[in-house]
Amino acid sequence: xxxxxxxxxxxxxxxxxxxxxxxxxxxxxxxxxxxxxxxxxxxxxxxxxxxxxxxxxxxxxxxxxxxxxxxxxxxxxxxxxxxxxxxxxxxxxxxxxxxxxxxxxxxxxxxxxxxxxxxxxxxxxxxxxxxxxxxxxxxxxxxxxxxxxxxxxxxxxxxxxxxxxxxxxxxxxxxxxxxxxxxxxxxxxxxxxxxxxxxxxxxxxxxxxxxxxxxxxxxxxxxxxxxxxxxxxxxxxxxxxxxxxxxxxxxxxxxxxxxxxxxxxxxxx
Length: 269
Hints:
Elements: H1 8-17, H2 22-48, H3 53-77, H4 81-86, H5 88-97, H6 107-114, H7 122-125, H8 138-164, H9 174-185, H10 198-213, H11 215-230, E1 233-235, E2 245-247, H12 265-268
Helix pairs in contact: 1-2, 1-3, 2-3, 3-5, 8-9, 8-10, 8-11
């Protein structure tokens, strides 16, 4: 795929959505790397914020400036601007920018809003832009599930850290908060770290509810995808009963007996 020969706006629009050309892949890789960098900075800041406050602020200004430029460009090239602004990706991009401009509020509140920058990865996770063309079925589902579980742990850890860091000596950095979150979400409950603030207890209660409902479901899906990936079956949906998994050489659905149609190179052509 090549960009259309047109205006600068059309060229920018092409490369912001392209995942096939060298330029498009470079832009995607740069944005993914920047997102990862901001997450790592967020984690590191919990350890060294008091030591290097000006350094972290300078990093914040530079990264947010790039986020703003990306947001403006995506808005400029969008054909339906209202729909674009109300889209989930645009809202996430906006949330990634806003905390820098509300530093007059409580600093802990600003830091906790910044945790949602991890969801900027959603744009690339949902499309599988960083995977090969041959890895766009089970691999994408596996990446989505892993991303969901990691996001739950990361967001939970950030909230419990913001709630407890001042009053709880056992949660004085994000690493200890991650440990507490994993212990809580897996319902191990070792008891060596406990919340001491009312907000911390509320966050922990929510984490326990999430661990009961969402985490086992996501892990179950992950195990299922790995089993399908390693089995000698393929995804061919029966048009009659909806059964999705069939043997590689199956010509009829084992559930209802209907003929199933395998996609071949000839049928694609």
